[in-house]
Design goal:
The complex is a heterodimer. Chain A is an all-alpha fold. Chain A has helices spanning 7-10, 14-34, 43-62, 65-93, 109-127, 140-154, 159-176, 180-201, 204-214, 225-237, 248-251, 263-296, 300-324, 342-360; strands at residues 100-101, 106-107. Chain A has one domain. The chains are: A mainly alpha, B alpha+beta. The interface between A and B is large, with 54 and 46 residues.
């Protein structure tokens, strides 16, 4: 029916591209307002980054499933080396460092490791014979995969990243069919060890974040300031918001990080809960798309990767939104496709690109008669 | 017991689908949680958060009200507000602290004291709270800073108001002064106005007691500010309501003249309208310059004021207490007349009066004197004799009726009311019987009797008019005063005695008014500061042991209008120190030119007017050359 539209263009996964465009476009509008009605310094870059990465994503979607499978382990090793390199650079430079400057772009290996961890886990479960899923063989390799990267990011220190890795592995393991007892056990272990980690494992600033999350009004001008101001921004926006360009919390700098981690509050102040519901609805569509791709994939690797990466994106959304509305402690996690920031956009688009590739190559069931 | 399950890909596929659906469910639940939480914050708590956002955004700045003026009985200004200029530093915008302060110090001619203070305050300052560099600047200095503003980031020149007393030191004790609010005052009443920069309250005198009338209502300015305190724009401004002006009964020209005429002496002049009780003049010198206080007095100036043995911080008119000496003789005369003494009855003065084996001396050998002559000549012997006859318990009520020993409801922070002794008082205070020698001392205004110049002035005014006038400092309609209990005949005797003091052959004949048809009546007084010892009679020697000179008077004699008292501390004699001042001050009421000519001649000998003398003294105190006189504000 699309006579005018060339076949390759028509063949693009427009459904998800529209969802992303809506999210990024809305995000750009919020950033445009946050900058006082200017494309500089955020909205313009945000759009350009998205367009460049969209090109990358379309190229990625052409790659076959076998390609991803074949580069999974080399990628994992490469990122592990980069994490070591970052650590060494930081050691030489005399301070913690999280990225490598490659001249044109800066790479943050701990960030890139998040989707790769999902790929690695899916790769492992794909190779694992189905009848071994209940045994110990299904568990220890996951631990091995997790150990080094987590150790490397924790000494950076980037505790949030380590949790994200564990979350990625856990989700893939859950989808792969690991016995539920593990998850109950993990839940119980967290309940027991969380206090121990809190008292012995966290840096004072991280302890503060937790305490302040529990009672932000105790410290309205200190570290609780973020949560309090974010709630003021959302709460004062009401149902319809104060109108585009009229947010006082963001424009007068009361809301910290209003263009990155707290962009949702910036948005909610001007667009109200209508704007909030709009973003939630777009995320709902995105998640539905990702899980649908996973369920429609015919290969185990495709299923696990699509579901795992969808959950990786969801992890960002969940942590950020719960933080912004005051239901989770402050963590430096941006809101996917809306917050300003190159690193997270790159990670998110990598996830989307690989899911697109799976959508395009659902593959054929193999080993059905194993 | 457990049989190893054999799982197939198909089963795993099934598990995957189930679990993916579960994950989707979890995601949806979290999404709904966020939506619910957001709705709760934005809908249920909307009002609360709107208010919080508003209080973030809007900064309320108080505009201090302009203080009400003091004006005199003819509407002339006594205390006003002068538009002046101030320079502040906004610490956050300062780029080069030392250089900026250095430049300002040169432009504004700041002292090292000031520079130290600025550095200290800058160290403790933060953000956008301004640090004062200088206030009360004239336009030239202000302009010098303003034109260099591009090179001075962080410097903020502004216009404000400061209190201005055109009469300077002359009205210091009368009006008081203002200053910034102390920590205790703020604790009492936590009005944010009190700690607004530049806001001052009355600290002494009428400025303090009439604070409520003078203060006015503050205005407010709502501004939109960023989190860092930067002002984005003005929202609304509510103008301030200036304080109401207060009209005093003072005739400021006469008051200023009296203050100037006191010259180098330490003393006071009080003049009443003897028909109404209006306080027309209440000068007390030396005095601090209230203008110095309203800009924050310097350390050196404060030290200078406190080290002066003439006590410039004390309002001598109300708080100075002196033995009234012979100025009390007319009072004794009235009491004697009331208790049956015939004014023509003669007492022979042989230079003293013997009581038992002690002789109470008179200053002269007056021969036979009646009451008017005794007042004229200030003959102690007559009053010793007659006073002893009627007893002091009969004199004290008359003294009280004339205002001595009384306190008046006046808006001054403190007045001292002195003592009119009698036998009951002495018993109460010392548990001793009143003796006849106490009577003899008291009747000539020595001994236990003490009074303030204010009371002496009122006494004189009451004798002059025969009316029970109540002293009043605030203009306003009042009930006409009732007559005193003395018959006119009695008052006429005493008034005639006082007339003769000046216009007859009395003690103050040299202080006759140089006017046609207007004469002054009066009574001199010389009060001993310490007991007479040997030949030294308080007429020489160290200043602080010399006799006080007092003079009470009224004018015109035939139709009294003004009652006055002049008290000169350690002036050595009423006729010598106090009466000439009274003469010039009363002359000023009727003939300003003549009075000014006489004053200017005196001031030439004293080293200039009050302001010039204080400037020179300050310079000497600082061991620095005198600064150039400030620009004349009236020019």
């Amino acid at each position: 029916m699309n006579g005018i539209v060339p076949a390759p263009v028509a063949a693009l996964p427009w459904r998800v591209i529209f969802i992303l465009m809506a999210l990024v476009g809305f995000g750009a509008a919020v950033l445009y307002s946050a900058a006082g009605g200017h494309f500089d310094p955020w909205a313009g870059k945000h759009l350009i980054r998205f367009l460049v990465l969209l090109g990358m994503v379309i190229i990625m979607s052409r790659m076959s499933l076998e390609f991803w499978k074949s580069i999974t382990f080399p990628l994992y090793l490469l990122l592990l080396l980069m994490l070591v390199a970052v650590e060494l650079l930081g050691f030489i430079g005399g301070g913690s460092q999280r990225w490598i400057n490659l001249g044109i772009i800066t790479l943050q290996p701990s960030e890139l490791m998040k989707p790769v961890m999902v790929l690695a886990a899916a790769w492992f479960f794909d190779r694992l014979p189905p009848n071994r899923i209940l045994g110990i063989d299904a568990v220890w390799p996951l631990g091995a995969l997790l150990l080094l990267p987590s150790a490397l990011v924790i000494i950076q220190p980037d505790f949030d990243a380590a949790i994200a890795y564990a979350f990625g592995l856990g989700v893939v393991g859950f989808m792969a069919g690991l016995p539920l007892i593990y998850f109950w056990g993990a839940g119980a272990a967290i309940a027991i060890f969380a206090p121990l980690v809190y008292f012995f494992g966290l840096k004072p600033y991280q302890q503060d974040r937790v305490l302040i999350f529990l009672n932000p009004e105790n410290d309205p001008l200190g570290a609780g300031y973020h949560i309090t101001q974010s709630k003021i921004a959302i709460g004062s926006g009401g149902i319809f918001g104060k109108g585009f360009g009229n947010g006082t919390q963001s424009h007068l700098d009361y809301l910290p990080e209003g263009h990155t981690d707290f962009v949702f509050a910036t948005m909610a102040e001007e667009w109200g809960i209508i704007g909030g519901f709009f973003i939630l609805f777009l995320y709902f569509l995105l998640m539905r798309w990702g899980l649908t791709v996973a369920m429609e994939s015919k290969t185990r690797y495709g299923q696990l990767v699509a579901a795992g990466l969808t959950c990786t994106i969801f992890f960002y959304i969940m942590i950020n939104l719960l933080m912004v509305v005051g239901l989770a402690p402050v963590a430096g996690i941006p809101l996917p496709f809306v917050s300003h920031g190159g690193s997270s956009m790159l990670t998110m688009m990598l996830c989307v690109g690989i899911i697109m590739s799976i959508e395009r190559h659902p593959g054929a069931k193999r080993g059905q008669f194993h | 017991m457990k049989i190893e399950k054999q799982l197939t890909s198909v089963q795993l596929d099934f598990t995957f689908t189930r679990r993916a659906a579960f994950v989707g469910g979890v995601q949806a639940t979290i999404g709904l949680t966020v939506a619910a939480r957001m709705s709760f914050i934005a809908v249920a708590d909307n009002e609360k958060y709107k208010l919080l956002a508003e209080s973030n955004r809007v900064n309320l700045t108080i505009i201090p009200p302009r203080r009400g003026w003091f004006i005199d009985r003819f509407g002339k200004p006594i205390a006003t507000n002068r538009a002046d200029f101030r320079v502040d530093i906004i610490p956050d915008r300062l780029t080069n602290k030392d250089e900026t302060v250095q430049t300002l110090a040169e432009l504004l001619a700041l002292s090292t004291d000031d520079v130290d203070r600025i550095h200290r305050e800058l160290k403790n300052a933060q953000g956008f709270q301004p640090v004062q560099v200088a206030d009360g600047l004239d336009y030239d200095r202000f302009a010098a800073v303003s034109v260099r503003l591009p090179d001075l980031p962080g410097v903020s020149p502004r216009q404000g108001y400061s209190r201005f007393y055109p009469s300077g030191a002359a009205v210091g004790h009368l009006i008081g002064y203002i200053g910034t609010v102390s920590a205790e005052e703020y604790q009492k009443n936590k009005d944010p106005l009190l700690i607004t920069p530049g806001f001052k309250v009355g600290k002494d005198g009428l400025e303090k007691t009439l604070e409520d009338r003078l203060q006015g209502k503050p205005g407010a300015q709502r501004t939109e500010v960023t989190a860092r305190g930067k002002i984005v724009r003005n929202l609304t401004t509510r103008p301030e309501t200036p304080g109401k002006p207060v009209q005093l009964t003072i005739d400021i020209d006469l008051h200023n003249y009296a203050a100037r005429r006191l010259g180098l002496e330490s003393g006071s002049v009080v003049i009443f309208d003897c028909l109404t009780g209006d306080i027309i003049t209440m000068a007390s010198m030396p005095c601090y310059d209230p203008n110095s206080f309203s800009d924050g007095i310097g350390r050196v100036e404060w030290k200078m004021l406190n080290s002066d043995d003439h006590i410039p911080m004390l309002n001598k008119a109300l708080q100075g207490l002196y033995p009234p000496g012979s100025t009390l003789k007319p009072v004794a005369g009235l009491a004697m007349l009331r208790h049956g003494v015939d004014p023509e009855e003669m007492v022979v003065c042989n230079g003293g009066y013997r009581l038992g084996n002690r002789v109470f001396k008179c200053l002269g050998r007056h021969g036979p004197v009646n009451m008017t002559t005794a007042i004229m000549k200030s003959c102690n012997t007559y009053f010793y004799a007659m006073g002893r006859r009627i007893g002091y318990d009969n004199i004290a009520p008359v003294a009280r009726e004339l205002g001595l020993g009384q306190e008046f409801s006046l808006p001054f922070p403190s007045q001292r009311y002195g003592t009119v002794p009698d036998s009951a008082w002495k018993m109460r205070k010392y548990d001793q019987q009143w003796t006849e020698s106490d009577t003899l001392n008291a009747v000539i205004g020595q001994g236990y009797v003490i009074a303030s110049p204010f009371q002496l002035g009122l006494m004189s005014a009451r004798i002059a008019s025969g009316l029970d006038i109540q002293p009043e400092i605030l203009m306003g309609k009042r009930a006409a005063p009732k007559p005193l209990s003395f018959p006119k005949a009695h008052l006429d005797v005493v008034r005639e005695g006082m007339n003769l003091v000046v216009n007859g052959d009395g003690t103050a004949v040299r202080s006759r008014l140089p006017l046609e048809g207007i004469a002054m009546a009066g009574k001199t007084g010389t009060a001993q500061v310490r007991r007479i010892s040997g030949s030294q009679r308080g007429q020489s020697g160290e200043w602080k042991y010399r006799d006080h000179g007092l003079f009470v008077c009224f004018a015109p004699v035939d139709q009294p209008r003004y009652g006055a008292a002049v008290v000169i501390e350690h002036g050595m004699g009423g006729a010598r120190a106090a009466a000439p001042i009274a003469k010039d001050v009363l002359t000023f009421i009727y003939d300003r030119e003549r009075a000014m000519a006489s004053l200017e001649a005196l001031e030439a000998g004293w080293g200039g007017n009050i302001e010039k003398r204080m400037g020179a003294k300050y310079a000497v105190f600082q061991n620095q050359p005198a600064p150039p006189p400030p620009l004349d504000p009236s020019a």
